[in-house]
TrEMBL record:
<keyword id="KW-0378">Hydrolase</keyword>
<dbReference type="Pfam" id="PF00270">
    <property type="entry name" value="DEAD"/>
</dbReference>
<keyword id="KW-0067">ATP-binding</keyword>
<comment type="similarity">
    <text>Belongs to the helicase family. DinG subfamily.</text>
</comment>
<keyword id="KW-0347">Helicase</keyword>
<dbReference type="GO" id="GO:0003678">
    <property type="term" value="F:DNA helicase activity"/>
</dbReference>
<dbReference type="InterPro" id="IPR006555">
    <property type="entry name" value="ATP-dep_Helicase_C"/>
</dbReference>
<dbReference type="InterPro" id="IPR027417">
    <property type="entry name" value="P-loop_NTPase"/>
</dbReference>
<dbReference type="InterPro" id="IPR011545">
    <property type="entry name" value="DEAD/DEAH_box_helicase_dom"/>
</dbReference>
<protein>
    <recommendedName>
        <fullName>DNA 5'-3' helicase</fullName>
        <ecNumber>5.6.2.3</ecNumber>
    </recommendedName>
</protein>
<feature type="region of interest" description="Disordered">
    <location>
        <begin position="416"/>
        <end position="439"/>
    </location>
</feature>
<dbReference type="GO" id="GO:0016787">
    <property type="term" value="F:hydrolase activity"/>
</dbReference>
<dbReference type="InterPro" id="IPR014001">
    <property type="entry name" value="Helicase_ATP-bd"/>
</dbReference>
<feature type="domain" description="Helicase ATP-binding">
    <location>
        <begin position="2"/>
        <end position="291"/>
    </location>
</feature>
<dbReference type="InterPro" id="IPR014013">
    <property type="entry name" value="Helic_SF1/SF2_ATP-bd_DinG/Rad3"/>
</dbReference>
<dbReference type="InterPro" id="IPR045028">
    <property type="entry name" value="DinG/Rad3-like"/>
</dbReference>
<keyword id="KW-0547">Nucleotide-binding</keyword>
Length: 664
């Protein structure tokens, strides 16, 4: 561990060493491990070093899964190259590593070379400007294909729209296969898979990890250990991967694809089914469905049957020209997806309401066509069987012990309750975790943080303000926010529960303050964060992605303001269904679902403040319920142990002193 820390120019820390020992024990014993490690602990090295050693001594592969591209890039571009060099002498050779993403993330050379029909979306068909813009982007992608070594979308700067990317990429089900594809030997996705198969460490994302667990055909190389970083996001990413969606556009596109490979009458039946579904969805009220309306049920049955007729007509694999094979494969993949989603939507209502495993709802979102979606009520069973039941798993994040316990997240992961989080001073790896079933065993460990939160930060709860309303930010909130930002001299990250609130605050404070205020959506998030970091007088306001994605150490960020406790919307179909299910089984549905969601986001938001040992500042929560509501204690226990006050004068004075010190 010492060699690794020195290689990246760091300093060995007690929490990091303890975590590394625990990860090594978990890998050797097969006991799963959940580790909470605060910012600055150096947790990536703490799990990478024992993982690399295991992979190289056992001749196997370990998988590291992350939630964000930023962490993937940190691991692949910085941490792993340095470790590979540093550990080579001690391990006898340089450890190898690779990054692997879903096939849709790579250019498909078969499509680049024109061996498949182009498929403009409906919007482009009737909009000459959109069609022209799409054509320019596709042309740029074809030119880039001749220069790129990886074909990885994330390496294309600036990027292109999803619509353009879809023209020259395929899903796993749409792929012809390396042996049938005329350019299979040069395939970017296959080369990435081959590199991953030879590597000691494979870095991937939670979505691909979920697909690997969901699909009976393995996507990732054979491995016996999974390291899940940013594990607080695992349930949401797995849920997203297991969610199905049906729209009229997807049915129409399937019909257009089939029109090139089956008789016209069969394809027209599917197109007509899409038109019928569109009429029903346009009239349907958005929200969760506890029963399937008769008109929607009829539209889904017609869609299911028409899709199956097309699948049957497409038939088995045939020996034909490349373009014909590609057209058939593209048609089959989407038509099977339409059919299977329709079946899943219909079967979701077969069981009595209290025993259903899926949640169905109609979604109507701005700038998107109406859709009917289906998602699992919970993913704990899937994770228990397909992840924890098959491989040793280490889960880590700065925020796992909610309310002082790992049990809240453990239940969502499908692990038995442990009842408490082992504190940093004690070693947790020597004892067996309690298990309700006598099956899966796991240990929870909190290695703490190198930061002295009580000396470095203040948690200010504006207890004197009224509870938040539904119609934007109350005037008192805007007044309070103005005084806080003014006292801080800018230097503020404003985290809001909605884009509407963020824009309202930005517009209002631009008129009141003499310091710049940026708002998410004004430019790309990366550029806004860069401008915020460069100018200490600047404030940046935004919503969800900023709660988890901003890393700005130093004097540019000394105040983090959260407008309200970030509970999910009461009409959120999945959250409300999960809450209802917990309550019906005798649990506290509000705390288990809405409280967990809020605690995670609060902790993630608070984690934006201290990014280095010398950082100082204030977390200000304008929502008084954090201090007054019964659930407030659970939420506060999920936050770092900042010194807490309710006095606005005390916190403004502290911010003025920080501003004055930073100006010296």
């Amino acid at each position: 561990m010492r060699i690794a820390v020195e290689a990246v120019g760091g300093v060995e820390r007690a929490g990091q060493a303890q975590m590394a020992e625990s990860v090594a024990h978990s890998i050797e014993s097969g006991e799963h491990l959940a580790v909470q490690a605060g910012t600055g602990t150096g947790k990536s090295l703490a799990y990478l070093v024992p993982a690399i050693r295991h992979a190289m001594t056992r001749g196997t592969t370990v998988v590291v899964s992350t939630a964000t591209i930023a962490l993937q890039r940190q691991l692949v571009d910085r941490d792993l190259p340095r470790l590979s060099t540093a550990l080579a002498a001690a391990l006898g050779r340089r450890p190898t590593f690779a990054i692997l993403k879903g096939r849709r993330n790579y250019l498909c050379l078969n499509r680049v070379h024109g061996n498949a029909p182009e498929e403009p979306d409906d919007s482009a068909l009737f909009d000459a400007f959109a069609a022209s813009a799409l054509e320019r982007q596709v042309k740029r992608l074809r030119e880039w294909a001749a220069d790129t070594e990886t074909g990885d979308r994330d390496e294309l700067v600036p990027g292109v729209t999803d619509q353009a990317w879809r023209q020259l990429s395929v899903t796993a089900k749409e792929c012809l296969g390396v042996h049938r594809c005329p350019v299979g030997i040069d395939c970017f996705a296959e080369r990435a898979r081959a590199a991953a198969g030879r590597a000691d460490v494979v870095v991937t994302n939670h979505a691909l990890l979920a697909i690997d667990a969901l699909d009976d055909r393995p996507v990732l190389p054979e491995h016996d250990v999974v390291l899940v970083d940013e594990a607080h996001d695992l349930v949401d990413r797995v849920t997203s991967a297991a969610t199905g969606e049906l729209t009229a556009n997807s049915v129409r596109l399937a019909a257009r694809r089939c029109g090139r490979a089956v008789d016209e009458e069969t394809a027209d039946r599917l197109a007509e089914a899409g038109e019928g579904l569109e009429i029903v969805l346009r009239e349907a009220a958005p929200g969760r469905l506890d029963a399937l309306p008769e008109d929607l049920s009829g539209a889904l049955r017609v869609t299911r049957d028409a899709a199956w007729t097309c699948v049957t007509a497409l038939g088995p694999e045939r020996t034909e020209d490349v373009e014909g094979s590609t057209a058939r494969k593209l048609a089959l993949a989407l038509t099977e997806e339409v059919h299977d989603t329709a079946v899943r939507l219909l079967e979701a209502f077969d069981e009595p309401e209290g025993e259903r495993r899926d949640v169905v709802w109609v979604a109507a979102e701005p700038n998107r066509p109406p859709a009917v979606r289906v998602a699992p009520l919970g993913v704990g069973g899937l994770l228990r069987e397909r992840l924890f039941g098959r491989r040793t798993t280490v889960l880590t994040s700065a925020t796992l012990a909610l309310g002082g316990s790992f049990d809240t997240l453990a239940r969502q992961w499908g692990l038995p309750p442990q009842r408490r989080a082992t504190p940093a001073p004690g070693m947790a790896t020597a004892k067996e975790a309690p298990s309700d079933t006598g099956g899966l065993t796991w240990t929870g460990l909190d290695v703490g943080s190198p930061f002295e939160h009580q000396r470095s930060g203040i948690l200010y709860i504006a207890r004197h303000l009224p509870p938040p309303g539904r119609d934007g930010l109350p005037p008192q909130y805007l007044d309070e926010l103005t005084e806080l930002v003014r006292a801080a001299g800018g230097r503020t990250l404003g985290l809001f529960s909605s884009m509407r609130a963020a824009r309202q605050a930005a517009d209002e404070l631009r008129d009141r303050l003499g310091t710049p205020v940026l708002c998410q959506g004004d430019d790309s998030t990366a550029l806004l964060v860069g401008r915020f970091a460069e100018d200490p007088a600047t404030s940046l306001f935004g919503t969800l992605s900023l709660w988890q994605g901003v890393d700005v150490p130093g004097e540019s960020l000394q105040l983090v303001v959260m407008d309200r406790i970030p509970f999910p919307r009461p009409d959120d179909p999945l959250a409300s269904a999960r809450q209802k299910a917990v309550s019906e089984h005798g649990g506290n549905g509000f705390l288990a679902v809405a409280g967990t969601h809020a605690a995670l986001l609060l902790a993630q938001g608070a984690g934006r403040l201290l990014r280095s040992p010398t950082d100082r500042g204030v977390i200000a929560v304008l929502d008084p319920r954090l201090a007054t509501a019964r659930y407030g204690g659970f939420l506060r226990a999920s936050l770092p142990p900042f010194w807490t006050t309710h006095d606005p004068e005390v916190v403004r004075g502290a911010l003025r002193r920080l501003d004055a010190a930073a100006a010296l």
